[in-house]
Amino acid sequence: MSTADFKVVLLGSEDVGKTSLMKRYVSDRYHSRPHNNTIGAAFSSKKITSRGRDIVIGIWDTAGSERYYAMSQLYYRDAKAAVVCFDLTERVTFDRAKQWVTELRNQEENCKIFLCGTKKDVIDEGIKPRAVPPEKVLQYSKGIGAQFLETSSKTGENIGALFQIVADSCELPMQKQETIQLQTLKKKNNCC
């Protein structure tokens, strides 16, 4: 899986802000002009520290357009985590997020799911009202065993926290050196 320790996929409807979320996290940049729609998927990675270990998370930003739906399934294969995004000001994107969760559970049942409400700044600035009450999202996230955060790619609010929670929640395979040390300990103790 290239140079990443584990794979995270960003899923959600078109125009919910997945690309902005990834760009803000990876390079701490935000562009107010609209992005071109993602075709297929875009990949980026970032090195962080999680549970005392330096790791690299590979982030796949998938296309949200219906016409790329079948292709998106290829990108979340073997993902350790999925960040399912929806626009806090557009109810239809929350309904679509539920469909992404169902599809993901059918394809990758061991993949951890994180719900991400995007564009919190739009609500905070009074540009648009909230379309989905937080209580409803929390109830849904609890029901599927997911964590939920509201984010803003424009201000950077909760972006780093989201990916830190994802990294800290995913079990990583032991590094080769740790495996060798465990094998040495077993031999010294005449165990297995």
TrEMBL record:
Example of a GO MF term: GTPase activity
Protein name: Ras-related protein Rab-24-like
PROSITE patterns cross-referenced by the UniProt entry: RAB, RAS
Top-level taxon in the UniProt lineage: Eukaryota
Stored Gene3D superfamilies: P-loop containing nucleotide triphosphate hydrolases
Gene: LOC117641440
Keyword terms, alphabetized: Nucleotide-binding
Organism whose genome encodes this protein: Thrips palmi (Melon thrips)
Pfam family, one: Ras
Family (UniProt): Belongs to the small GTPase superfamily. Rab family.
